[in-house]
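Reproducibility note. Readers wishing to regenerate the assembly model reported in the main text can use the exact inputs given here. Chain order matters: entities are listed in the order in which they were concatenated for prediction.
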Amino acid sequence: MLNENTLSKNDVTDLITAYAGAERVPKKFKVITDTSDFFKVEYNDVVLLAGIPFWIKRYEMEGRFGIDDQPKYWVRRAIDLRDGTTKILKLVFHEKFDTTIGDIVIKCFRSPKKEARILELVADHDHFMHGTWILDTAGNIVRVLDFIYGRNFDQLIVELGHDHHDYFFNHFPDLLDRYIDLVIAIKFLHDHGEKHGDIRRDHIILDRERQIYRWIDFDYNFMHGESMFGFDLHGLGNILTFLVGRGDVLVPDLHQNQRPLFDSLWGEDLNISYKNRVANLRKIYPYIPESLNRVLLHFSQGAKIFYETTDQMLNDLATAKIDVAKQAGRI
Amino acid sequence: MSKGSFSDVARRDSERHLLAAVDESENSRRTIIYLADFFGDYQDIFITLLSILPEPSEDYFATEDERQKWLTEQTAHITNKLAEYRAILVDAGFSEKQIDVRLVVRQCASIGDAILEEQDKLRCCIVAVGRRGLSHNAEFILGSTSSKILHHAKHCAVLVVE
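Running the prediction on these inputs yields the following structure tokens for the assembly.
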């Protein structure tokens, strides 16, 4: 077993040569055992964690809400030089920031401890990313994640079907089953007293190899209010609305392109947090079963009661699933 | 129940014991002022000022020192508030022996549940809380402690002060 006491720079060079060939050994690189200053971890450096050499490659990117391809400097793609597998190294970044959802501000934190704990919890769970964590020489909790080859959930949905009707009858029933599996996975976290913390559609990846959807990125945490899981449920609702609508159904689009539908809308039909999105999708697509639309209405401005637990939501989804299958002629 | 007066333990069963669940917010202050105005002249009411300080998990802090510092600051802050609330009640006619102050620092998934646990222990006949007046959106995402108490309280009346 290699360890940081015995692994010299020459050893590391040999490992890179064995993996990539002598011509690809970088002329200059550092061997890093303390990742506290993640900006110092540069392309082609080798991070040595408990004797395991990771050859650092590109930054990971995050692009949404108008901030395209924003680099996450603390998240690096890397090659495990022992076996050539691709990993994601998440270095410690104690970021604190405010997230605004509609009219409320939530104080969020990145917590390496939380993500490390959940990685252990979900080690045998198919619907989560997998990985481990290792302390560097400065005691930083570095998460070493298995790379998932595949595309984001939201990219896939909008490509299915030639129109909404085709999508809803021919693709949606299967997708609803998969979505329910994802909600059950979140229930697993909640049942163990953990939140996901950042439920959004680009945090679900369709694992190309295993053909299952998997949750990623659970290092967010926040000081929750009375409802410990309200933020997670809010995220699940937004994803379901996106899924049922084959993308977000936006009020400005209806105003411009489908004026009669726009005129049929009331404030209560809109998303509880995002007032430019329609939640009452049965008004737009009348073939959506009422039972499914009722679930969506829990996330509308007109909602009288809210889901407090995934169990409540899953109960309603079970009914909706039957009605969707019947409507699609599957039962 | 005044400290040291063990002879009146039996009074506990018949005492009109009011639990005021408060934090440092303006709506808590309004609740205390309301209680002071409404019950200030009643000599047979005992009031417990309760504050639950939810202890954050270690996740929220980079180091244990940071966590301890946060707890010390928050504890001092809420202790001062509780003293302020006690003074409001005394000014309104409550005697010192009619008031108890309880600060509970604990990890809890729900402050509402934690308040109701204290109510159950103390057998208070009224729980008084303020309402923040959350928006629809905020009530969904953050949850409402007063709604939780309203829906889950047992064996007591609930007084929600707007």
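We highlight two features of this model. The two ends of chain A are 56 Å apart (CA to CA). Chain A touches chain B at residues 94, 101-104, 106, 109, 111, 113-114, 193, 221, 223-228, 230-231, 233-234, 272-273, 301, 303, 306, 308 (CB under 8 Å).
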